[in-house]
Amino acid sequence: MLPERGQDGRAATGFARVLGHRTAWTPVGDGEFFCPGCGGDRNYQRLTGRRRFTLLGLPVLPRGETGPVVECASCQRHYGTDALDHPTTTRFSAMLRDAVHTVALAVLSANGSCARTSLETAAVAVRAAGFPDCTREQLAALVDALAADTGRVHGEPCTPGLAIELHEALDPLAPHLAPVGREAILLQGARIALADGPYTPAEREVLATVGAALTIRADEVTRLLAAARTPS
């Protein structure tokens, strides 16, 4: 018969001390992740556990497996394995850098003339994203090399191959960007396109593909592209 609970709950507390449960964790992997508790990159252990009933603190009966979980080496807190889906700060920076570079090359490839002003605007964006040594001459050479490699002609509409390249660079990044961040990448591409004059049809098509890959609604893409044409 269970002890009766008194007003102060001492009986229930005593019972809990007699019978409880314990989890024995076993490491099954490790690595680095972005810890949501610490707010930065930390080492982690991936753990699986076996739960047991305890009697007077001693394990007696198995209750089955639990986990897996991710344990932060710094704060010691446990998180679901979906925490590993969030890129580390280092990985995120690389993804953002590569995305801006890919968008810049795509817009320049759509630009029929690849004008000096467009190249310089693109170089400024790429340098700010994490390629500090990028120059307009390097970008021009890359655009020419891409055209030679793919058979693409400057100023042609967004080809399936180019659309795939944009989606490969932007799809993994989009879920981890706030709306303002996704818009900023699109607007960078718009500024490159506008540096030498109004949008060409090919540039608009490339920018529409960029917007779709960043999960920006088509009407919002239209609004943002129109806003980019208006001097602030």
Instruction: From the alpha carbons, calculate the radius of gyration and give it in angstroms.
Output: 27 Å
The percent of residues in helical segments reads 40-55%
Strand content: 15-25%
Apparent shape: elongated
DSSP helical segment count: 8
Domain Co-chaperone DjlA N-terminal: 100-224
InterPro entries: DjlA_N (IPR007791), TerB-like (IPR029024)
Protein name: TerB family tellurite resistance protein
Organism: Streptomyces galilaeus
Description:
- The chain is an alpha+beta fold.
- The protein is built from 8 helices and 4 strands, in the order αββββααααααα.
- It has helices at 10-18, 89-110, 116-129, 136-150, 160-170, 179-194, 201-213, 218-228, and strands spanning 19-35, 40-55, 58-72, 78-79.
- It has a 4-stranded antiparallel sheet.
- A hairpin with a 4-residue loop joins β1 (19-35) and β2 (40-55).
- α2 packs antiparallel against α3 and α5 (160-170) runs parallel beside α7.
- The protein is elongated.
- The N and C termini lie far apart (79 Å).
- Mean pLDDT is 85; it is low at 1-7.
- Pfam families: TerB (PF05099).
